[in-house]
Amino acid sequence: MAMIDWLANHLVFLATPTFAISWFVLAAFSAVFIVFDVIGANRGLNAPLKVVWPIIVIFFSVVGLAMYLATSRPPGIGRVHGQEPKMERLTEFSRPRWRKVVASATHCVGGDGLGIMTAMVYARLNNFSFWSEFWFEYLVGYLFGWFVFQVWAMRMHDNGWLMALWKGGRAEFFSMITVMVGMGLVMRFVTPATVGAEPLPDTYAFWTFGALGLMVGFAFTYPMNWWLVAIGWKHGQGHESMRDNR
Known about the structure:
Elements: H1 2-10, H2 17-39, H3 47-71, H4 83-93, H5 97-125, H6 130-155, H7 161-195, H8 204-230
């Protein structure tokens, strides 16, 4: 509990209007930059990640932008001309496994996070208990991640629909467990200790602590995604075996 008290004392600033507004304004500018970047200079990026990175950045703000620049945007990609050369440059840039794993974890947290935050809004407005909210968020996040993002990614690796459903659901199951462990720890201990009762969607704390929970979830799911990439259950990024890269 001493650790929770320490965190609570040092995270009060997250609930302030100044921080929250600054964080999400920077997030909006960062997301717009990425949208234009993947349409233009970095269009060789894997298609699902073109959607996922702006979602991540909406919550992770400038931290997410830094992650994108370090892991999914090859230096000088704007000076590379042609779709295939851009894809080849991204594939070469993505050879270090840590970059592939960041992309894999981002793909997970982006899809899951969209579902989790949607479910959290509904749960808070309807006075769910902690565990009811937790499992509701797990279910909605899992379904978002599985059907919207994982199946899409698996289909791009020459999998038929049934195989894509199976492989996507398998990868999402393990990823989602670890995301929700991180998210749940923030929801159960850190947020109440810092701002009292679980905040509602019309408060700054709801969104900033939701973002914090997703970032902690990312940290928890990174080792899991390392293992999933290592055994070939997820692919990260790059075009070594893609059939459709536009």
